[in-house]
Amino acid sequence: MVMLDRIEKAILAAHAAGNGQAMAELYAEAAQHMLSNGQIERGCFYLTQGYVFALEEGLASASGIHTRLVELGHEI
Amino acid sequence: MIQQALAMVTGPIETARGLPNEHYTDPRVFEEERKALLFANWAAVGIGNDIPQPGDAMPVDFAGMPLLLIRGHDGDIRVFQNTCRHRGMILIEEKCNLRGTIRCPYHSWCYNIDGSLRATPHVGGPGMNFDQHIDRKKLGLFAVRSHVWRDIIFVNVSDRAPPFEEYASELLHRWKEHCHPVYHGGASSGFTFDVACNWKLAVENFCESYHLPWIHPGLNSYSRLEDHYHIEKPGRFAGQGTRVYRQIEGENGECLPDFENLSEFWNEGAEYIALFPNLLMGAQRDHGFAIILLPQGPGRTIERNEIYYSFDPAAHPEYRDLIERNAVQWRSVLEEDIFVIEGMQRGRHGPLFDGGRFSPKMDGPTHIFHSWAASRIVKQRGNGDA
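^ inputs. structure came back:
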């Protein structure tokens, strides 16, 4: 929980700074945290957030996030 | 009564009147002309130099229609309506380079640079990014038909105009010797005026040489009124030419390089043509220019002035001084016109003005523009499309 608090604070700071790359990375980190704890729905929410910013930033990680979302049945 | 007034416009120049006041002042007529004149034809909205790099994007307000100009990774220029297919949000507010997709700032629907819809986050509920009723293949950005000529980006919003090469065929033929690659002169060769007048007044003033001795007296010493001639192509373009164009020269008589393979006429000839609806162009042996009129309402126009050369200025710093001087000279001439186009706009708030009369000898190009505009509006009204 402490870890998630840290990530969420960092996400807010990244939003405030308009730092897309940081948002993509932080949301993906939060997603990983949730998914590893078995919280699939919440994990997919964060994964989606990270996916969008990775797409916008043109990050290579977008492809991997997309694949993961498809595997989880949350993307086509 | 209004139809009668327009019939007077399209009549012979000897008896014709100009367009009535409401064509310059009335928001309802502006809306009508937006459709009949600006959207139904090939109108200029920007230049390739606005978006030189792959991924560059620039929003343009074209008579109230939000457009988005994008240069793709293939180098091609595409134009879209700058509106998200979800809730109609404006997608891009400022000129930028797209690193990846276009993300709507509202609910983050993402579009590829080719306009296709890439992602619809949470559209099926939190974390669920698809929905059986949302077909991404059918929800790409609205593409607007576009064409690029001499670096100028044209659009035909109605998608009903003939192909650009056909639409502008007579001008393309007339200026076929000038169909060479063009290079923008750089920062100082692009300057913008925000003028308090209807866009048509800028066209009308540009078309004719009648005003030159009064508004541009500096021309009198070498480019006399009698050295000018009318250019008249009813239904397409109008303008004026001169037989005594004088090149700008450096202190030691050096000149800017000519466009290649020009015929003898262009040694001292120059032509200035308004391609209807909203593009004003100049062709000379050593440079050309484009003036794009972006209507902002009945009484306000953004006038973009862009100067081009036959060579890449970045590769030829030795011409920098002449390029700068040429820009200063054109800016000075074009600024001289502002008080008349703004004055004609104010004059059209006088209810007693009846559209005015044309000089049969001197106002031919202006009458051709008025007649074109009036006939297009009459046609639209006849279609019940007003």
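Chain B touches chain A through 17 residues (CB under 8 Å). Chain B has two domains: 2-42+161-382, 47-149.
thumbs up if we can close this ticket
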